[in-house]
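Re: your question from the hallway

Yes, I did run it. Sequences:
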Amino acid sequence: MINGLDAHIPAGAIDKKWDLHKFESKLINPANRRKYTIIIVGSGLAGASAAATLGELGYKVKCFCYQDSPRRAHSIAAQGGINAAKNYQNDGDSVHRLFYDTIKGGDFRSREANVYRLAEVSAAIIDQCVAQGVPFAREYGGLLANRSFGGAQVSRTFYARGQTGQQLLLGAYGALCKQIADGNVQMYPRTEMLDVVLVDGHAKGIVVRDMVTGKISSHAGDTVVLATGGYGNVFYLSTNAKGCNVTATWRAYKKGAFFANPCYTQIHPTCIPVSGDYQSKLTLMSESLRNDGRVWAPKKKGDKRPPNEIPEDERDYYLERKYPSFGNLAPRDISSRAAKQVCDEGRGIGDTGLGVYLDFADAISRLGEKTIRERYGNLFDMYHKITNEDAYKLPMRIFPAVHYTMGGLWVDYNLMSNLPGLHVMGEANFSDHGANRLGASALMQGLADGYFVLPNTIGNYLAAHGAKKPNVDSSEFKKAEEDVRNRTARLLGIKGKKTVDHFHRELGILMWDKCGMARNDAGLREALKRIPALREEFWENVNVLGQGEELNQSLEKAGRVADFLEFGELLCYDALNRKESCGGHFREEFQTPDGEAKRNDADYAYVAAWEHVGDNSPPQLHKEPLEFEAVHLATRSYK
Amino acid sequence: MIATGPAKRNYTIRVWRQKNGQTPGKFAEYSAKDIPADASFLEMLDIVNEGLTGRNEEPIAFDHDCREGICGMCSLVINGTPHGPNKATTTCQLYMRHFADGETIVIEPFRANAFPVLRDLIVNRSALDRIQQAGGFITARTGSAQDANNLPIPKPAADKAMDAAACIGCGACVAACPNASAMLFLSARVSHFALLPQGQPERTHRVLRMLEQHDAEGFGNCRNHYECEAVCPAEISALFITKLNREYALAEVKEAVK
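Structure:
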């Protein structure tokens, strides 16, 4: 145990840990499970699969989501696929290889035991989903089809057209629906969690706002599970849904939960470029497109000719050139950075010069338009709707955009945070992807956590502490509710001159500028000065109209942006502290002569877990050293 | 269809405003000025809302989330058509380049008895969740599954199931139907499972229970208007309603001779 951070990693060989841990984990007998209430916040892949599975086991589950239906959580937007070590293609895949690829993909900044477990349970996820009727792509023989994704040299990605997240979520949602119908899960849609309640230091409940009536109320349970996704919207423009927010995890942080590695943010290489300042979000074009699309930019600076007039020998297929063995399937962080370098050199395309081409001409001439349409039709359609361009005729214009956040609340091997009773799953925790997540691994982690990990580990906490759900009339709950009401009243009482979106945009521009694809000491220090100033201005000059006790979208947004305005500062602290480049965190001071990330294992092979020690003090750093026993720390190379 | 014209355009929008489910609503008119042709329809509403807030008028409430056409949260009846004029397109994927400069655009909520208005353009679509809860799933307890490739499924069947499973649950089919029927939604769910071997054990029970719930929620019956298919952003075919009818008839017979 270091600085109070014990990850509770089981002893034994890496491939025996999970089996042994499951055996040694405490069980609760079926008749007693119904005495326990489990609060789950979020209904994406992690939340829905956990709620359904824990409901099946006989626990009383209360599940909350801000959307009007659990089926709309943002997992639904995942396009490309889900990884699993099935080795159905007989191409040399194995649990160990998926484990290794994920550790390496994460630039050796994830916790080995967690990643191994993820790879281990991956195969069972596919079995589970097929049993639920998830219509994965199949070959003519009737067996499941696979494709390749970035950072791997095997085909282990299962997919359902370009809508894999949708189909997996509908599978989990179906299982959740059954548990709702059976009375094991009580669902609270259009309900937003605004605080976590601690009783004697244990997470025992939440305060929520009914987004239709505005009523603020409390729910008590024996444990609280956060499955509330990532914080990408701190950048304002991202591929996240508009409602995605950091509030649940941030409120937990302010109650004492450690926030780990917030600076690990994933900038996805293939998104549709920004077209104007009115823009409200960015749209991803699935990484699977890089199976058949070739990324290029003109060799000449400022070449404004249309792409089809640029001859072959004046094009730079820079990923193929720089990373011959992985080519267009280089991992996301590396591909994004390469695109940035090309644009920084003045070779970017489009009106803004912030874009590169993703070209399907070769694949279409090799396979025919029909095959390409079958593989990616919905993505090409979406591209056409947004840009009014036909990617069957012209290459797509793409540029990196904020997509996923690897950091999150610190959890141990049981997925419990340092706050007893507070469990965290999926994108909301930090544990499995290190400094960079590989494509098709987010769906895998969400479902691994929800179907197979948490249901096995939650008993360790519950059995040790018994079914002692507190009363929501207790002083702890009343105090938390009072705080939430005061905060709401404060937001409504400012009646300033600027809109919530104005502040969110300002924060986003600042974060992207100073803490986006490349970061440096001076920029981060500047951001750390400007964010508090912006926050101060927000609390003096934001205009939130309407009342608290009604459906009020401005108020919802204001609460979330207020939290982003605090969280952004922590993200910058972490980025400033980590004086190395790794995965999605690129510090300009630390790079190789050819512009690759330069890690510093001697000083930074640790998880940075930050503790809130007061509103006017800088966060306190705790370190969980990363120890590698099954793999050797190596410089990541995709060349 | 692209409406050619200036890069920035002006519109008049007539929008349904309603404080809550208990208060009657009415149309209000606003001008939407300097709207970039490349802005999405919802970004146009964002711009109008920024302006309203600046004048201390309450912004227009509307549902939206992913803004990439998949979550099914956005709605709106635009100039009389759910999700607006473009085929196979959700409101969030509709762009202002499809609206001519100077046009008046009428914006209403999805209307149906089973979708009560909550505020302005936001309606309550939880009836669709309850239909799903009545049987829209395959029971497969976590951990009980066999190896996925032990159950080969012919590609055409899997593809057809995927066609049905692509429904985003937005409810445009209901808003478009003169009978406010949710049959297209229901048929997509029922067909997805009925087409797969995993869906067979609960096949009879599923269709009977889901249809019962559909009727209990106050959705009307299908009278073959095909308006649903015409507006469906996920291009769910009305042929699935034919399949639903067959599934229902078979289930009735099975129940009768049980």
